[in-house]
Design brief:
This protein is of the alpha/beta class and about 325 residues long. It has 2 domains: about 180 residues, 4-Layer Sandwich (Metallo-beta-lactamase, Chain A); about 130 residues, Rossmann fold, CATH 3.40.50. Helices cover about 25% and strands about 25% of the residues. Strand 13, helix 5 and strand 14 form a beta-alpha-beta unit. It is globular.
Amino acid sequence: MRPEELLVRTPAGLWCRAGGFYIDPLRPVDRALVTHAHSDHARPGHTQVLATAETLDLMRLRYGEDFAGTAQPVAYGEKLDIDGVSVSFHPAGHVLGSAQILIEAAGTRIVASGDYKDAADPTCESFELVPCDAFITEATFGLPVFRHGDPAAEIARLLGSVALFPERAHLVGVYALGKAQRVLALLRQAGYEGPVYLHGALDAFTRYYASRGIALGEVRPAKDAGKAELAGAIVLCPPSALREIWSRRFPDPVTAFASGWMRVRARARQGGVELPLVISDHADWDGLTATIAAIGAGEIWVTHGQEDALVHWSTQRGLAARALRIEGYGEADDEAG
C-alpha cells in the first residue's frame, strides 16, 4: 500500500479511509485522533475522540465536559486496532500530552507529527523518533532564519532585566497552554524563587500542569496584587493583554514576549515588545531538518507553515516531498509560536 492510499487530504483534514478516522480534523467528524490540545488541532463536536489522557483533560478545561460524544485515552506506545489499521501515539515534545500518531497498514507506516520540537522541555515528554515510510512534518518555522537558540539564555536575559530594573514590573506575553508553563519551569530551573504573577486566562492550564507533578513554584493571581507588590515582579499574560488596558495597572512595565517569532526583530518592534525572548514550542529550521534526516522516511509531507522551503530542502536530498496545503492550522492567536 502506498502512503497516499492510507492517508488522504480532505477539506476536513487528513483522513484514513481504511480506519474510518481523521487526524486533527478541522470540523466535527465521527472519529477523530487528536495530536494535542491547542485549539487549531483539537476542536470540539466530534462523535469519538482518541488522544492522550492529558490532551483529553486539557480539552475538557478548554471546551467543557461535553466537548465530544465519547473520549478514549491512549497511553504513549499503546497499540490500537481500528478496523484493521494499527494506531499508536508517541511523544511529540510540543506541550503536555502532545503526540505523534503512527498509522500502520499493509506494511506501510505513516507518522503524523502534529506540532513538535526536538529541544528539551521540563514540562512534557521528549520528542521520540519513530521510523516510518512517510513523515508528516509541520513547518511553522520552516525557514533558515529561524534558529531558536538556548531558552535558558533567553530566561537569563529576562532575569538580567529584572535585576537591572527592580522598580519595574516585567510583563511577559506567553501562550496560555504550554508556553506559560514552560517559562515558569525554566524560571525555576534558573534559580528564580520569587512568586510569579499570572493573568487569569493562564490559571486553569497552569493548575493542571502542577497537578501532574510539574514543578512550577509559587504562582499568584495578578489581579489580587497591589502596585507596590508588583514592582520588580514577573507577570505572565496572554500576548494580547500586553496591548490592553489591563497592562496599565503595572508599575512602568517592561513588555516581553516569549515566542519563536521574536527572532524577527521587526515583528517585535511592530508589537511594541521591549524585550523579545526567542523561546518556541516548535522545532526551528535546524530541528526540522535534523528530524527529517534522522527519521529515515522516503516521503516527507509538509503542512502548516513555510512549506515550500522545507519541501525544497527535502527534494534536494533525494526525498519525495510535497506540501499538503491544508488551511486552518497555526491560526490560533494565543498558541501560535
